[in-house]
Write a structure and sequence with these properties.
The chain is an alpha+beta fold and about 400 residues long. The chain has helices at about 10-25, 30-45, 85-90, 150-225, 230-260, 260-275, 295-315, 350-355, 355-365, and strands spanning about 50-55, 60-65, 80, 95-100, 120-130, 135-140, 285-290, 320-330, 330-340, 370-375, 380-390. The chain contains 9 helices and 11 strands.
Amino acid sequence: MTRPGLTDLERENALLLAIIEATSTGPEVEPLAAAVARLITNASGTDICFVHVLDDAGRSLTLTGATPPFDAHVGRVQLPLGTGVTGWVAEHGRPVVLVDSKRDDPRYLAIPALRGEDYTSMASVPMTSDPAGLIGVLNVHTTARREFTERDIRLLTMIGRLVAGALHAARLHRRLAARERGHEQFTEQVIAAQENERRRLAGDIHDGISQRLVTLGYHLDAAASTMQDEPGYAATQLAKARELADLAVDEARAAIGGLRPPVLDDLGLAGGLASLCSTLPGIDATLSLSEDRLPEHVEIALYRIAQEALQNVQKHADASTVRIGFGVHRGTIRLEVGDNGTGFDIGHDTARAGYGLRGMAERAELVGGSLQVRSRPGSGTTVAVSVPTG
């Protein structure tokens, strides 16, 4: 029995609509090519279909979609431009039809994995799109001898153009996603390098300056207990020296905490935020903190933002209460720091609005998030950060 050709208008329209629907399902190249290959064979009365896509360099074609049982070879079969019928069609931009006697055509190249010898007839058309030019080549094969008509080739070419546009969009999406992943990895590396340097400096201060200052204090204590001449004057001077030594130790400890908050390593972001609130004299803190752990660079960024926001509360807000909320919900990390202070007019008080907010916004952007500030004179201020988890 002779299989039906592509001559029925209703069948053509149904096929084109199905192709359009398939190209709208998502941005992934391989599933799209596989779906199109199945649709073409089912609607065209052909036995197998191959979708070959041109690589970014424009030098070779890769099998990207195929009907079973050849779908197992997707990604494994590559043809240099100009090689075989497929490569010739890609290079010249014109269709090829082989009704029989494939081996007699000098362009034909047998590919053992695709078992071309098992099929008698084939049609090969270029897939092109206006913005990108050649995207790939579409091939159909039949076991029985098949005379592909001009109408068949026109329809296959039309399908090829539809698929080319979708594949071009899918490739652009893949490149954009790769670029975003690269940017995210670069950001992580930058933040990690900064924090590693902070950790190293914190260790140097702790092991060097702090220890020496503590030892200095011990020596001063010993001197104070043994001084005999002018005991009053010596005691006064030693007390001042002791006071200076204690101050230096406190400053060194504060520097260590500023360079690398050890509480993040020990307790995570929730513990770090709680620790920050304990350093606010005269301000009551209300906490709503999730115990979720985040990637290190995200925890560090959120901790620094909260630290800056709380410093602004302490220095500028004249607040009596502060609230901190942190959690992860439906793929979004959320941090909020709010107070009941004096607030300010964001649109007009540029000095207050710009104080520290630029740095907080930059930290949020580095981890792919955004910063929002809500404030009004007499109504307090809220700093909110949202970061996608994906």
